[in-house]
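Hey, I'm writing a tutorial for new members on how sequence and structure tokens pair up, and I'd like a real worked example in the thread rather than a made-up one. If someone can provide the structure for the chain below, I'll link this post from the tutorial.
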Amino acid sequence: MSQETQSTARQFRLWQIKIFSATWLTYVGYYFCRKAFYVVKAKGGMGDALGLSSWDLAHIGTAYLAGYAVGQFSSAFFGRKLGPKLLLLTGMGISLGCNFIFGISNGFWTMLLFMTLNGMAQGTGWPGCIGSLGYWFKRKQRGSVLGVWSTCYQVGSVLATAFAAFLLGLAGWRWSFFGASLVLLAIWALVLWLHPNTPEDVG
């Protein structure tokens, strides 16, 4: 193997590590703007503060799931048009914006509308991350890589739930949403800086 080939292989390996790290953190970050609602809706939190009944909260939760399903299906189309990086940046940007709006919301219909939009944005996470990994890892590597990468599910869920609960107790339910937005905003900036759209973009 020539010195130039070895150098290219090392560069590609470095990019694989960057992409793995960026997408792993991305999916962890998505959970922060996914879990906050389910933490703060309980008794003494958002539901009581906004006068929402159990039926109202159930409708909001269902709206999220419906939006999530639409987001996953539509991401197949938009992912091919935008590429994985732009798909993730768009989805994360919309989701963190929705969570900020949840933090200033005062009514059922605002929550319902933006929870549907949040679900659609959250639906970009899996297609965007897997699309990124598919660009950068060979088929024979993907099983092992995905096995390690999938720890983001457990880590993201635990951290997001604990973080929302901590802010709920410390500063109230609105800050559970604001905090989630800030976490995802930090990861959004990291992906913008660290993650090229395709391998061709870096030669």
